[in-house]
Amino acid sequence: MSEHIPGIDTEVAPSGPGCLECSEASGWWFHLRRCAQCGHIGCCDSSPSQHASKHAESTGHQFIRSYEPGETWYYSYADETMYDGPELAPPQHHPLDQSTPGPADLVPSDWQRYLN
């Protein structure tokens, strides 16, 4: 994926350090995913609210990239396939001092029972 790929914008910055919708609703997430087209940060499908998938469904943006430290994989909702791809605009992942799951002060003590 070194050439221009429709649906991947390497210039757009991420929407923030955490899931946009969870942050607005004082919610929490397990892992984070970044829309490779618009930079929207949403929570993964294991998270209670699954905002990354909901964003893809509502916008038609097909590619996400992990927003976790040390992970650079892409996933295409269109063909349900994992890919390698270009580096996106920084930052590449959520802040290293941010907890997983997060944000720490909103994660319930029994958080594992809420995972999908």
From TrEMBL:
SUPFAM superfamilies: RING/U-box. Residues 84-109 are annotated as: Disordered. It comes from the Bacteria. Residues 1-101 form the UBP-type domain. GO terms for molecular function: zinc ion binding. Pfam families: zf-UBP (PF02148). This is UBP-type domain-containing protein. It comes from Rhodococcoides kyotonense.
